[in-house]
Here is the input.
Amino acid sequence: AAAAAWALARLASRGHGRRGRPRAQGTWRERGARGAGTLHAGSGSASGVAFAVMPQLQTADVVVVGGGLSGVVAADELLAGGGREVVVLEGAARLGGRLRTETVTVPLGGAAVEVPYDCGGCWVGATHHGLRALLDELGAALETQHHAGLKVMDLLGGIGTYTGHIPTCLGPGELLDMHRALSEVERLARRVDAGA
Here is the structure.
């Protein structure tokens, strides 16, 4: 199950919304596997997650575009307030957005070993206090990042491995491109007013 769907299922099973607000009891359910996802509060005490192959024409009080973690949390906050029908539109086949882990095969000690590989925005730093609080509230476990040992890198469809701090599986030009891209991200980040 997608991380976001799992998180919502945990919230529903605990009988309350984020920050301890009471929530109408109900079940989270999944129908189908592909297409747009809708998160809706049913009438009375029913609530749930539904997936449809094609989005059905319906009305809603609020439409949240995107079923990534932010979209799902926004929908959950709106549902916790009660009295609203909330629809989450998601173009992918699953909720969770960039939160995704796949299994990849890497060479290790002369053998091919399958390992979990985080494919998206899955890294949480020590200073990401708000995200850490949300993950704690949802009961999501975090894996400790180890700097020692074998590292795995997605190389445009191929898998590369390396040890140390510099990805030796990249060529000099690729390393330079990566450095330029990271420098640009840092330059843009300095322009953001953190207090805004």
In short: The chain has a mean pLDDT of 69. Residues 71 and 160 are 33 Å apart (CA to CA).
